Amino acid sequence: MSISLPTYTRREMPLLGRRHRLRAIIVTGLRREFKRPAVIVSTLLGVALIVITSIAILLFAGLFLPGQALDLSFFFVPASNQTVLFFITLMASLVGSALIADDLNSMALTLYLSRPITHADYLVAKAAILAPLISLIAVLPLVLTPFVAALLGLFSWTIALQAIGLAVLLGSLFTAFYTSVTLLLSSLTHRKSYAAAGIFAVTFGLTIPAEILSISISNPALLYASPWEDYLAVARAAFGAPGGQIDWPWALVILLAATLVAASLTYLRMKAVEVVAG
Amino acid sequence: MFGEVRAVDDLSVAIPEGAIGLVGPNGAGKTTFLRLLLGLVRPTTGTAKVLGHNIAEGVPVRERIGYMPEHDCLIPDMTGVGLVTFMGRVSGLDADTAISRAHDVLQFVGVEEERYRKIAEYSTGMKQKIKLAQAMVHDPQLYIFDEPTTGLDPRGRTEMLDLVRVIANSPGRNVVLSSHLLPDVETICKYIVILDGGHQIAAGELRQLLSGSADRLRIDVRGDREAFAQRLRETGLEAEATPTGVHVARKPGVEGVIFEIAKALGAEVRYMGREIRSLEEFFLELVERNEAAVSV
Fold first, then answer.
1. Distance in Å, alpha carbon of A91 to nearest chain B alpha carbon
2. Domains of chain A by residue range
3. CA A227 vs CA A76, A206, A252, B29, B80: distances in Å
4. Inter-chain residue contact A110 with B139, CB threshold 8 Å
5. Residues from B in contact with A at Cβ < 8 Å
6. Which of A65, A143, A190, B289 is placed for a possible disulfide with A105 were both Cys, Cβ 3.0 to 4.6 Å?
7. ipTM of this complex > 0.90?
8. Residue B150 has pLDDT above 60, yes or no
9. Contact call for A114 and B89, based on CB within 8 A
10. Which residues of chain A, if any, have pLDDT below 70?
11. Average pLDDT over residues B260-288
12. pLDDT averaged over chain B?
């Protein structure tokens, strides 16, 4: 007699690549954010306020900005609208402050990193959740303004398209800076409120003292300490607007360097977090 | 190595398929060992392979591992089914398969009615089951359970151990069970690795390790064990009373002496046979021996 037992072969479940895994984190993250009323309200309010004020200024330029040339340099006006700064800070603190801090607090980071993704994948996914939301404030209104202006026949499409291109570049620069700094602050604490306070501190704690001190001691170099002033210097140069007290190349270098340093520090910080704790 | 501390040193072990217990006192290096298995840290020297993949590869290793962490690590504002589906997708399952698998594994672990509730509302037992479900969702070849019965009441503990046992007994699935609760390890695992001070102090088949020397007998006596051991020693035998019985060195004719003493003391010999230790006894013996060796 001979008995032969069946050989059990286990069917491997096909797994999709890393791009799909990151997309799952990003889509789930964005869905969660867009379910939050605070995010919806601040996005709508921010975009509407900036676009409406820009168009209003555009329509009544002769009244609000006497002597302002209606050429490419006009689009520095919406780019330098301080509402942009306020709503970017608000968006970063509402969404970004919790992105890593909540995972540290709930220890969900363990779940993520025990999956087939790397620390860098995790950070890229988190940045990809935050960046589109910040760019809704930093890019969208600056793109809509020249578009509407061209539709209304106030500017030629050549100038409008130039302005749109520059708006995308400038908005992306500021989005990258805020995304990077926000994720760093979020990775440093388990409490999102601390990270949110840090974002306001970076924005207004640097900008307001830099502006006051640069005037009081007549040293414009202090303005380099403010990310907003650095952004304005670059925007001014890009749109060819007159004025400005600091050199745009240095301002650009400072913004890019701060973005890269913050991203590197976030990565190092995440690598140092003990995912599997005993 | 963490700074100047060598968390796991000189660990050479080939772990066979099946259920493997990982035990050791606090600071023994169990957590570092799990980090190594997950490819989250790399050994400073030497190599390690998990399911044929070098752990330095990280991602391909974790594709084949389902990890159930010890601590509460769930995302509180997600539903049970939402979290398990999400973890399936992060593991690489497509959306339809992830949802379908999430429902399957939640049914398996016994979270059915509650799967649409937010995790923040779950009891400790349900959270443990969700942690198990998320580890299972992508049908891994290797499961790592880190203290799976922590915080569970006796009923919950039995349920969890039953689930772990079913997984461990399934063909093509392997389990590494790290636990302080040695009876849990003893009931589930066939193979064991014992760590202490970052070193492996024992590894092998549990049955072999626990079956002691053929030169010793264990006697289960109903009555005064200490008096029984004392009488044995008076006859020139090497004997010791422990909570698990009286242990005697084997000599020709020892059985006769044992029954005579039992008759004299009015004690009942309920079991007499080759000495078999519990995992707890074996573990304590090893750790004490290791501590003595280190202090020398």
1. 20
2. 18-271
3. 17, 8, 10, 46, 42
4. no
5. 26, 30-32, 34-35, 38, 40, 58-60, 62-63, 65, 67, 69-77, 86-87, 89-94, 97, 134, 138-139, 141, 146, 171-172
6. A190
7. no
8. yes
9. no
10. 1-13, 276-278
11. 79
12. 83
